[in-house]
Amino acid sequence: MIKVLHIGEYVQGGVATYIKTLITWDREHGIDNYLLMSEEKSEHTWDFPADKIAYYSYRRSPFSLLPAMRAIQKHIRLIEPDILFLHSSWAGMLARVPFLLGKNRPRVIYNPHGWSFLMDVSIWKKRLYAFIERILANKTDVIVNVSQYEYHCGIRYGMPINKMKVIYSGIPDTTQPTLNKIEFSKDRMNILFIGRFDHQKGLDFLLETFRGNDFPQIHLHIIGAPVISTSTNEYRDDENITFWGWVQNKQIGDYFRASDAVIMPSRWEGFSIVALEAMRFGKAILASDRTSLPEQVEDGVNGYLFSLDDECQLINILQNLSSAKLADMGRRAREIYCEKFTAERMLDDVAAVYYSLI
């Protein structure tokens, strides 16, 4: 039996989905999973034994770092895992810094879920983040990259190639049953955006494109909310734009089913769970050509890619969309999901890493 302790910081969204998939491999598969995450801004609803879940007091500030490190080390000593699986850069830092002082440690797997030095930040910050990652890599056995893009960027920034591995994320081929059937108007193509209203997700670019041009044949549906509250009326409904706010995860599938395509104008992504969900539901994807998205979206096959540096590309795509073409792309999207992005494939790859370490 391999005992694995998963440690995260703010475990929500895509990271939570990723961990929930990993822990489906339980004791029956020879793996004994445990979870540790921040009390604040983490999911608290898990289909998992409560006695294997723990939280530590933390918020992202300099005053919380040492207490969080102590709490994490205390829990590691309590669980005595064979493997630590660290999720995201902050959790990776909090768990590994004490090991730099010579503390005994289990085997360590680290998944940054998108390198911090790939964000749209200044050059000096990129270099600082990369320096910290290189130092902490000395106390890491395997670094899991969720895309080829992330892998090659990591190598370029000096990550140890002998520890780097690419494992594409996967999600289970299960969907929630329809709760309250969502029906969108059939006289238009319905395009769905899902995500936080922040710089990374590119909603500002999308709204500017829609409000500055005329797309009478398209209705844009937006699920999400601002990360920071705003008093502006930027997020208001228009004739061809509807804001739905945050939707319960168990009902997200109804919105996928009602849509013709999903749009992702992201400035960067580690590896998009929303794109995987769209493919699972057999939906075409309109996505930016940034970071890992071209590894999920094949231009003209299961969707379209566009540049954020040239608004005309997205305008041209939207003006020439057809329901028939989107349906064909959606069928191909479903095939690509089954070929490359199932949970079973990801779990097999991760289990192989576990056993190689033990």
Describe what this molecule looks like in 3D.
- The chain is globular, with a radius of gyration of 21 Å.
- The longest helix has 18 residues, at 62-79.
- The protein has helices at 13-22, 62-79, 89-96, 123-136, 148-156, 203-211, 252-258, 273-280, 311-319, 323-340, 343-357; strands at 2-8, 31-38, 53-56, 83-87, 107-111, 142-145, 164-166, 189-194, 218-223, 241-245, 261-264, 284-288, 303-306.
- With 358 residues, the chain is α/β, with parallel strands linked by helices.
- α8 crosses α10.
- The protein starts with a strand and ends with a helix.
- A seven-stranded parallel β-sheet has the order 3-2-1-4-5-6-7, with helices on both faces. It has a six-stranded parallel β-sheet with strand order 10-9-8-11-12-13, sandwiched between helices.
- The chain contains eleven helices and 13 strands.
- α6 (203-211) links the parallel β8 and β9 (218-223).
- The model has no long low-confidence stretch (mean pLDDT 92).
- 35% of the residues lie in helices and 18% in strands.
